[in-house]
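Exercise 4. Each item below gives a protein and its sequence. For each, produce the structure-token representation.

Item: 3-oxoacyl-[acyl-carrier-protein] synthase 2 (Pseudobutyrivibrio ruminis).
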Amino acid sequence: MRRVVITGMGTVNPLANSVEETWDAVKQGKCGIGPITHFDTTDLKVKLAGEVKNFDAAEVIGPKEARRMDVYTQYACAAAKEALADSGLDMEKENADRCGCIVSSGIGGLETICIEHGKGEEKGYSKISPYFIPMSISNMAAGQIAIMYGLKGMCTSVVTACASSNNAIGDSFHRIRDGYEDVMVCGGAEGVVIPLAIGGFQSMKALCTSEDPNRASIPFDKERHGFVMGEGAGILVIEELEHAKARGAKIYAEIVGYGTNCDAYHITAPNPEGEGGAKCMALAVKDAGLEMTDVNYINAHGTSTSLNDAGETLAIKKAFGDHAYKLMVSSTKSMTGHLLGAAGAVEGIITTLALRDGFVPATINYREKDEDCDLDIVPNEGRKADINVALSNALGFGGHNASIVFKKYI
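Answer:
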């Protein structure tokens, strides 16, 4: 099988608007969560979010283009710009038909839908923007990136809620490994820190209502009581190894395995027995041609909800057996909040850098031990460690599970 490596990365997220600044913040254990500033939260119980900060879409992607994009597409294009520049890929020298794009979003252009619906109600629906539909649909981040860079291979968007960008990365990995493309631009984006989305998740009782940023997104902590909404994007450029070597590309790490399946259990709750998640991780490791004992670190889905964290812990125990207690298992959502369809991509970037630098991120702001979450969650302080194989989990509403196996490139 063809080997697949990561050669470029880009991100916009609550910690920073570049990869290296994000990694510096992760190593320092910074928290990107704070009071919501995008709108007035007076009528809501939820007061905190992981907002993108100091982001000027007009400056990054141009004022004309930015006006014709929903915020989630703006984030995706900004991250793609960094990732393509980082990769050093020269599309004028590439066979565009062998370069594809899979960029996902769990929800898509919800802010645009809200704005244009309000305009239609107030002024009549003949007055809504002609850009309403292309701005709001969930595939447009992938489409815009493909147009910007001339990517003429497979271009699509996977929509599997919070598993979306892991599926995007995994599907892209298989496309290259199986010979369909040589280069894929992949990841996810989300931009729904808006009243309708916060209100909807609040009504489900899925969101944390704490007003203390340091006790809000607290994965695996006994006092956890909901996730914190985040926003942003993560984009990776991945390519076939020999293709990367031929053009002298720097290589961050290798993607070696991908597993995906469904709990087929409930529209929002994970299977409390963790069976789907356990099988998904095992599928990913098998796809990599590795043993379960080869895995050193898991970047957990770790949302800070009661059901997810306990269920994911149980899933890891079922998948890894006794080796589960030798694993380091942290959740970087403690720093970023939950970026929904962008979560897996941002966490994939963090996992890649953990392999590169031999540093395992912490689960910050951890205080109260939960007997149901008794693995080594790397509490509060990151850890220097020689890790060769890492796994990143993403679990989504609808029972979607997706796991990616990353390996240090040698």
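Check: The chain has two domains: 4-246, 257-407.
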